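Exercise 3.2. Students should predict the tertiary structure of the chain below and write it as structure tokens, then compare their answer with the key that follows.

Predict this chain's 3D structure.
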Amino acid sequence: MYVFFYFFCSKVVRLSIAQVLTVISQKQKAALREAYKKKKYLPLDLRPKKTRAIRRRLTKHQASLKTEREKKKELYFPLRKYAIKV
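Answer key:
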């Protein structure tokens, strides 16, 4: 009786339970990712896990935006090109 009980509390059983639960949670998360693929907003647990500073950083689009004044300055005073005759 004692040996039988020990088997059910053994490392093998705990490991197999953990493996099953891992597979179940992975499938659930994959299904959620598929469901939210076309949505505008993602739940927090599906968003990429990055550092806090990286998450708060400007996106590439936001960083590349220019003010009207900058646009006009570049338009009216373009970078001068020089050719040197050898």
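Discussion points: Residues 74 and 82 are 17 Å apart (CA to CA). The helical segments are 2-8, 11-35, 52-56, 60-64, 68-76.
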